[in-house]
């Protein structure tokens, strides 16, 4: 292990190499807590955080590390970072032991990357005869609050009628195949997956580096099925911070579950001991939907109609008839087919989810329209009581449907957190 790895820094290129002469982010901003906060503020970090609706907390400005080990995986109730790289993987090996080896290696790499370390022997190891253990593009970058959240899709338990890994009996009842919702126009190439990793970070390069390296480690045993980049968070788990705006220009995430609201998290997000199966206690279920927005049509819609569609005003984000964003919504004052009225727990027998989505733009389509929208991510204790009834209600009645279309879909069981250095992603399932 190199000195840099021992001290926890991403290693800088050695003196004399081509990269060594360039000033690094570390040398500009400093590396310790106070130096970072100062450096980020000096570099306009505070202003940028406000402009993008980012968390104004010192940790956000500092790009600190988020602890990897714990009762729950990070990246669910922890503060939402600015960027996303989400990847769904197909398992291509039929060898259970080989798959377990990948999961162990992934976990070890994830623990290092989230702490801001290089993987294994690093990007510039002593032996230059072999490909390095780390691809190197995160060298000198801060941990950037990187979180890596791992999930398991239905296909790991059974695919094409085959119990591939002897796990069929261990499939959680809550891990259902999602029903077809009215208006769905799903692309199979952007849907499903046997495994997933949600990488969130304040620096896109840190998130992309993480997914790229996990794919590299799994080469020959797992392969990326689809992936999605997200550039702006559309929800918040920190209600005191400024609420971000989505691509329709509205504040999004106002009434999300706060990461500090333990009672609501236990009730709606974390799988409890009694919910079963045992290997999921402390975990959650993730639904991802790629929702395309018809931006051009939306942009020709009057402000009054836009506000009616959501049931909130655009500037403040206040519910109809109220003054402030966080005022309690009066559902009866909203149009019956408005998004917020239809999505509210009172309209869905209490169904409540934790939203953690991101905006995306993936270039333009053949007609020159932006391929843009919301990569919607929701966490819940049971999709049958969360996303499914909610989306059924929205898909049937929401006026927003004139401006959006669901084009990708996936569901994953997200196991509890990795407890310590001997634990690994999926251990309790494979035990
Ligand atoms: C492109 C699609 C969508 C857009 C642009 C969108 C936008 C919004 C906005 C602006 C709000 C109000 C602010 C807030 O409380 O967060 C909101 C609320 C909400 N949305 Fe969406 N949303 C979309 C899709 C969905 C989907 C697919 C679901 C779930 C199936 C959903 C569930 C909710 C919930 C639960 C609320 C909070 C309702 C409340 O308690 O007041 N949204 N959404």
UniProtKB/TrEMBL annotation:
Its main location: other. Keywords: Heme, Iron, Lyase, Metal-binding, Oxidoreductase, Peroxidase, Signal. One of its GO terms (molecular function) is ferrochelatase activity. Residues 73-231 form the Dyp-type peroxidase N-terminal domain. GO terms for biological process: iron import into cell. The lineage of its organism: Bacteria, Bacillati, Actinomycetota, Actinomycetes, Kitasatosporales. Residues 233-245 have a biased composition (Polar residues). Binds 1 heme b (iron(II)-protoporphyrin IX) group non-covalently per subunit. The gene is efeB. It catalyses: heme b + 2 H(+) = protoporphyrin IX + Fe(2+). PROSITE patterns: DYP_PEROXIDASE, TAT. Belongs to the DyP-type peroxidase family. GO terms for cellular component: cell envelope; cytosol. Involved in the recovery of exogenous heme iron. Extracts iron from heme while preserving the protoporphyrin ring intact. It is found in: Cell envelope. This is Deferrochelatase. Residues 1-12 have a biased composition (Basic and acidic residues). Its EC number is 1.11.1.-. Residues 243-418 form the Dyp-type peroxidase C-terminal domain. Residues 1-26, 233-256 are annotated as: Disordered. It is an enzyme of class 1 (oxidoreductase).
